[in-house]
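Deviations from the work plan: none for this task. Representative record:
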Amino acid sequence: DTAVSQTPKYLVTQMGNDKSIKCEQNLGHDTMYWYKQDSKKFLKIMFSYNNKELIINETVPNRFSPKSPDKAHLNLHINSLELGDSAVYFCASSPLSNYGYTFGSGTRLTVV
Amino acid sequence: GESVGLHLPTLSVQEGDNSIINCAYSNSASDYFIWYKQESGKGPQFIIDIRSNMDKRQGQRVTVLLNKTVKHLSLQIAATQPGDSAVYFCAESSGFQKLVFGTGTRLLVSP
């Protein structure tokens, strides 16, 4: 009964590969997000979607493409992976009415 | 640009002590602030929030203080326990359902 679930939890891949991270929330929230946490623990928003519509795109390289098939899912596809993409990626969701974010447990991406 | 930062990257306390974690923000238009706790291998968890029309808000063992004059936010944890050991983030609202996070403070609680 996990509220925000991400898969996979760990992902190790070579440079140049394409990979996807999936996220699902069962909270009935309207808005979903992707955040990137670097090695210094800094959390930065990448994207937010409200009811399948892109709301925020924080000048992320276009190698990153979010996809929201419905308001309960927000997947992140990354093309041509680079070493600098190594980080922990967090999915989160919130109701439209407030900032009560619920975060997933993260996906640790390592590009070698 | 907007930014949220913390003064102390690591705070070490003894069990039972009170802890104070500080945060400075630069966007005077921010009207909502949240503290999150992140344990190792987990996502950030909501602790407490405060709106800009308030100076203080209390929860269970935690208190958030907001000083808008100097753009400063603090989290006070009473009777700190080993289970409180984690990285703590402040975050400010920036409109459009977007939170800007600070750099984080690691709290280490010794038994």
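Residues 62 and 77 of chain B are 5 Å apart (CA to CA).
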